[in-house]
Every structure is written in structure tokens, then in C-alpha cells.
Write a structure and sequence with these properties.
This protein is mostly helical. The chain has helices at 4-13, 18-45, 67-95.
């Protein structure tokens, strides 16, 4: 685990306050967790969709704009969720 001075240094390098850096890391961690949860749900319950899964995008922060990483993760999470929800809806329609 990083100590406070390491976090302060990293934040300063990225032109952020310590609080902004922590918030960014929290959001990134949350998005990665959501991506893993959806991926596991697909693998466990809808293995026929595995062929449509992409690799998790690389999340190396860009020192000039860390929001790009968050946007990429959010976009990937949204696409996974959308694919899964659409598939579930289509399957339920077939059963009617």
C-alpha cells in the first residue's frame, strides 16, 4: 500500500491534489470491479457470449489527462452491460 507522501508525489506529478488523485483511483477501482463482475456473470451464466468479450482495456494513466482512462473503462463497462442485458432480453422474448 502506498503511503501518504507517495500519493502526494503521484498527485503532484499528475497536476492533481491528493484528494483528486484518491477520487480518481476510487472510481477506477470501482469500474474495474464492475467489469470483473459482469465478465464473471457472462462466463458463469452465459458462456455463449464469451467469444464477444474483449480484453480489459489498459488503464495506464495519461499524465496530461487521466479522464481518458476513466472514459475508456466506463465505455467498456457500458458495452459489456449493454451486450449482456440485450442478450438476456432477447432470450426472455424467445421463451414467450
Amino acid at each position: 500500500m502506498e503511503n501518504k507522501s507517495d500519493l502526494e508525489t503521484e498527485a503532484a506529478i499528475n497536476g492533481q491534489t491528493l484528494n483528486e488523485s484518491k477520487i480518481h483511483k476510487d472510481i477506477e477501482r470501482d469500474l474495474n470491479l464492475k467489469i470483473i463482475q459482469v465478465t464473471m456473470k457472462i462466463k458463469d451464466h452465459y458462456p455463449e457470449l464469451i467469444k464477444f468479450l474483449e480484453e480489459i482495456p489498459v488503464t495506464i494513466p495519461d499524465e496530461t489527462n487521466m479522464e481518458i482512462t476513466l472514459k475508456n473503462l466506463k465505455s467498456y463497462y457500458d458495452s459489456l452491460s449493454s451486450m449482456l442485458n440485450k442478450y438476456i432480453l432477447e432470450q426472455s422474448e424467445k421463451l414467450k
